[in-house]
Amino acid sequence: MSLDYAISYFLLGVMFLASIFGIFISVFMPGINSLNRKFFALMFGNLTLLIIAWTVDVTTWKSAELLTEERIAIFFEGFCYALTPPAFTIYLLRFCGESLRNKLFYAVAFLFGIYLILLGVAQVTEIFYYVTAEDFYRGEWYFLFVLPIILILFLNIFGVIRRKKFLSKRYFLAFLLYLVTFTLGTLMHAMNISDFMIAFGLIFSTAEMVAIVFSDYVSEFFKQQREIINQQANILILQMRPHFIYNTMTSIYYLCAQNPEQAQKVTLEFTNYLRKNF
Question: What is the pTM of this model?
Answer without folding.
Answer: 0.73
